[in-house]
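new request in #modeling-help
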Amino acid sequence: MLARSTSARRGGWSGFQRRYAPYIFISPFFILFLVFGLFPILFNAYLSFQQWQPGTGLGAMKFVGLRNYTDNLTDPTFWQSLKNTAVLAVLSGLPQHLIAIPVAFAVAGVLRRMQHLVTAVYFLPYITSIVAISVIFFTLFSWQYGVINAALSALHHLPLIGGLFPADRINWLGEKAYVQPAIALVVIWRYTGWNMLLYLSGLQAIPKELYEAAAVDGATGWQSFRFITLPLLRPIMFVAVTLSLIGGLQLFEEPFILTNGTGGAGQAGLTTIMYMYRTYTSYSDAGVAAAMSWLLFVVIGALTLLNNRLFGRSGLAGRD
Amino acid sequence: MTTVKATDDRPTPQPRTRSRGQVPPLPQLGAYLLIGLGAVLTVAPFYFMFVFATHTRTDIFQLPPPTWFGGNLGENYTHLMERMPFWRNLWNSLYLAVLTTAATLFFCTLAGYAFAMYTFKGREVLFGLVLATLLIPSTLNIVPFALIMQALGWIDQPRALWVPGMASAFGIFLMRQYIGSSIPRELVEAARIDGATEFGIFRRIIVPLTGPAMATLGLVTFVQSWNSFLGPLIIFRSGETYTAPLALRTLQSVANTDWGALMCGVALTVVPLLILFALASRQLIEGLTAGATKG
Amino acid sequence: MRTMLSLTLALTASTLGMAAAQTKTITVSVFPDLDSVVKAALPGFKKLYPNINVKINSLAYADHHTALTTALSTGKGAGDVVAVDFGYIAKFAEGNGLVDLSKAPYNAGQYRPQFVAYTFPQATAPDGRMIAMPTDIGPGSMFYRSDMLKRAGVRATDLNRSWESYIAAGRKVVAANPGSFLIPDAGEAAQIILRTGLGAGEGLYFDRSGKVLVGPDNPRYVRAFTVAKQIRDAKLDARAGAAFSPDWTTAFQKGNLATEFSGAWLVGHMQNWLAKDYSGKWAAQNLPGNTYASWGGSFYAIPQQSQNKAEAWALIKYLTTNPAQQVLAFKTTGAFPALRAAAGDPIFNEGVPYLGGQKARIQWRQAALKIQPLDVNRLDPVAEQIVNDALNTVLDGSKDIRTALTEAQLLITRRAR
């Protein structure tokens, strides 16, 4: 009798808590977001229609309608910064995955006891502070005195393959054509290990039996990579690529520090976020900067949606 | 844990049938070379950071730069201690990072679980909202952020950073992906039939099975909080409350940066991360192996 | 004069009276190396004002100004005394975040004759508010390697007679010293030329009425870009970019540079770490073409939001108008005093050991008096960025001077409204 009523009550409670549990579970995020996330966004939205120099106090705002938006859209530097951002996102994003996937595959394939150590080693750049990174890469990239140019010149003097390497020193951060590759190199260095970690965790989740069965059926290494590994890596690839895409489009720290905030020769390293930051801090034009952040938001949103359509749907399909 | 053992001890007639054995010698050599080359390139700048920490700033900019440890560590350390209460700053960083990480792990796993395992009204829209917050460049939020914190009276207090910090859209995204792809729904259903409460399912089933993803998210959150700069710059107002990166930046002037002391400080800030990583990555690999056998 | 005196006395008395009543703590927000100067000043200051405690908050140069911008825009969080670098003065002059020091009870205008002439106009907003007190200046100087010149048979006066002779003599110096460069970066020459020969009411980029001066028809700009381009094309520069970049630093340390233009403070760096091994080989001369320019300069200001304005002013006055303190600052970091009386200290008549005993400080002191104040505009940072970018496209050969200046003019005009 007692047991029965408890179980009946439980059924009601169970139904109730089951229905509302997900809302309760996600509520902390949304409450915090409302307080700390939404206000800044609304503030920026409001700001994007005002002319305001931070430093003059909140009372000094002046409504200017859509002018901040039209100013950005007719600003050649804004368009150039978008182009730079796109080029840098691809130049620094794609190689990360092209390197991380084979390396993760190799690590998972041939290493056992060393796996732990190797993973740790590849992850080191991710935890290194940007201050150290900047000093080290400045020394490496230096035009007259840099280690990279010294190495290239040594390679140039080798017989046979010497012709493949440039005869003159490359002014990495001082010449338009090399600024983007130099920045991309640092970004790739910094984040490939992070992607490798993601892929490694994805690889580990693929049941070994699948490979064993494929081997019994006489599949080659390439075939099992192509038909087992790649399809099953899709969900994690989706995560990794989405993160790279969003990170790439918001690239700031590396180009900012490597070019001393100027964008480098020909402004080739000026990303949109950098330009926005510059508009806000050195130009003191907060309204235009806020409008720029909304325009960038639209671009990033559109590209992420596209990525979702192209990649995500099939990737997430395996989930349900 | 038992599953881990099961993999390693699984009786195999010959080592050759293991996945390692399947790789023929030549590609195997190629794989080792690839791994080795990548590892050297990855570690080199990191190594130089420690080397530079033991040299004077004159030496650091020599050509070729020093490749082995020098004898100036003591002096760099002394300079560092003269310029700032470094250990105090390091403690501030640790306090902030630990709180941020713990809070983020709990709330993101909870929300990720909700998005992955429940079908509820508005799920897609709400998840879309979470993702949308990832797309907003935070660099511009300096002024509104400062305004909120002033209104709350949280200036100069660590909670101004860790409370908003735990609402991590990335964390929810990662957790939903992981829980959705690696935990079978049947497991949750079975527990429900056994009469477990929803939070009970979360605590007893989801949390133990999300080890690797938690290790990843925990590490990333910790590292980001540890290295973060713009937030602390707005919140902390005095040398005693500065976090380590903020304090170290005070060594960097336009004209007169003591690079030796700075490198020494940077190297010291990385050590706790290294320790944490040594611990977390062990967890990570164990968790990953466990995940691998579940198939 | 008497009213001024009595006002000062009244102010001092009230400050002292307040101080006697209770101990107050004020916060000074600075950036390095000014933090060392303030630290060194505190013992002397405490003797005069035993009841004012001073707390120093130091942040890196750019971070300090970012944090100050945030504090001023939100109305909270700034120090009681804030350091403002020369380049940021116009920006902070725009709003009402900083106290007008020309008004009572500060009446800073009375100190004007005591300071190097160009510093006060620099600290004054277009509407006449004086928002900061100058503390140090950076009179420009051409440093050169006397041993390299000797090897080439070139005299220092050949280098600084005019920009043409600078380039001609420079070619000889570089030819006679293989592996050397005449100058770290060709852009430096352009920056100096842009800062000299300004007409009345002209600023660097804008005139007093806000008209954009940058353009292909302004001879000052054409000449600046042309000279820089000539230096670059003659392969005379090390393309080291900004001062204190790693390339710049290494070029100094390796002794590969024949000349450098900079503020007098550079000697301290060369002596301590930058070019330790070349003591006695470097010497100083005036800039080429009889030009005078300044490299940097710092100011102190009081934010409106400060609750301790009287104490803050006491400290600022001590830091800027006390000759002994200004001399101490010079000894501490090499910050050249903005206060003229301080520059009369015997130490400025002594030879500089690093420069082979040359009495260079006399030369700098005179140069400081000849520097013209530049009209500042709040859009200077925008224009500076755009002009520097244009200069770089000219130097790397991707655009000709006319095109680059026409485009720069358009870009600046867009922003100037």
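bot summary: Chain C has two domains: 2-138+296-349, 140-293+372-415.
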